Amino acid sequence: MIALPPLDPRVTWSIRLVDAGTGATLAEHEPHTQCETASIGKIFLLLEVARRLEEGTLAADDRIEIPDEHRVEDSGLLYRMHDQRVTVHDAALLVGAVSDNLATNALIHLCGLEEVRAVAPALGYRDTALHDYIRNERTPDLPWTPSFGTAAELSDVMRRLGAGEAFSPAVSARVLDWLAADTDTSMTADAFLLDPLAHVEAEYQGMVLRHKTGSVSFARVDVGLLRGPEAAVAYAVAANWKHSAADLRAPVLDGMRAVGELIRAHVTGRARDEEDA
After folding, report:
1. Does the predicted model carry a pTM greater than 0.85?
2. CA triplet 181, 31, 33: central angle to 5 degrees?
3. Where in this chain does the record put each Beta-lactamase class A catalytic domain (predicted)?
4. Which architecture characterizes domain 12-268 according to CATH?
5. Rounded to whole angstroms, how far apart are CA atoms 37 and 146?
6. Which secondary-structure segment (H or E) carries 263?
7. Per-residue model confidence as pLDDT tens digits over 138-162
8. Pairwise CA distance, residues 179 & 61, whole Å
9. Terminal CA-to-CA distance of the chain, rounded, Å?
10. 60: how many CB neighbours lie within 10 A of its CB?
11. The sheet that has 147-149: what strands, in order across it?
């Protein structure tokens, strides 16, 4: 078992770390507490896209269309590109790499929102899902959040992806390939000391990372699969502080990094101050 560090009590936390091979719980804190998870639900969109590519109902080289009503900016690169009619594969890669909002909306439109909403229940999850398009403004008449989830279910998603059990080995492999490009190592993954822009292969102390992050003004979430020379851990670390008068991102990120350091030590068998020979 892994002993979690002290966590800021002003924050709603949901955390679970599991052995990626056996599924045994290594550490947890309120793992069944549902949190708003920002962009994490995009994993279920990637699963639906990958499933359709494997079935042949989508082609990787098809070009996406972006309806005007779903044009958004902020996270991502596509909204800044001159040619936005990228392929389905490249749109999914943008979602995995930079959590691209515009590519996300185009792919949801392509697959259908109800179909994407159905992915998590199809995998057996009750409290976790992608719930809506990404919106420039979330008014009261719209769904309450783009995605939600619990650490118990999100850590299981990552474990099943690593085991090739998320629909099929081929579907799981496609999604992990897109997530391999994730450039956001600012949260739990900050402790792994990887190159944020180049960690598809083992990059430091034999670690290989596949993960997805989510950020809004009141939430930080990091879910992933970290393999090392000694072990592999599927993890989910979610933090919400929506009802706090203070912006708690600093203590939240400190807590997430501390959890990440425990994961890194577990999968590598090394303390942080041990230098490579």
Report:
1. yes
2. 105
3. 15-238
4. 3-Layer(aba) Sandwich (3.40)
5. 8
6. helix 249-268
7. 888 888 899 999 999 999 999 999 9
8. 19
9. 28
10. 12
11. 35-36, 147-149, 129-130
Count of other CB atoms within 10 angstroms of residue 57: 9
Parse the chain into domains and list their residue ranges.
12-268
Q: Write out pLDDT tens, residues 49-78.
A: 999 999 999 999 999 999 999 999 888 999
Q: Where are the alpha helices (DSSP H) in 64-143?
A: 88-98, 101-111, 113-117, 119-122
d(CA 11, CA 129): 22
Location of structure tokens 């056996």: 22
Q: What is the rounded CA–CA span in Å between residue 84 and residue 104?
A: 13
In what helix (H) or strand (E) does residue 72 lie, and over which residues does it extend? Answer: none
Strands of 20-77 (E only): list them: 25-29, 35-36
Comparing C-alpha atoms, which of 48, 171, 49, 179 is closest to residue 118?
48
In a 10 Å sphere around its CB, with 0-12 CB exposed, 13-18 middle and 19+ buried, how is residue 118 labelled? middle
Contact 13, 268 (CB under 8 A): no
For residues 139 and 144, give the distance between their C-alpha atoms in angstroms, rounded to a whole number.
8
Q: H-helix or E-strand containing 220?
A: strand 219-227
CA–CA separation, 133 vs 108, rounded Å?
A: 7
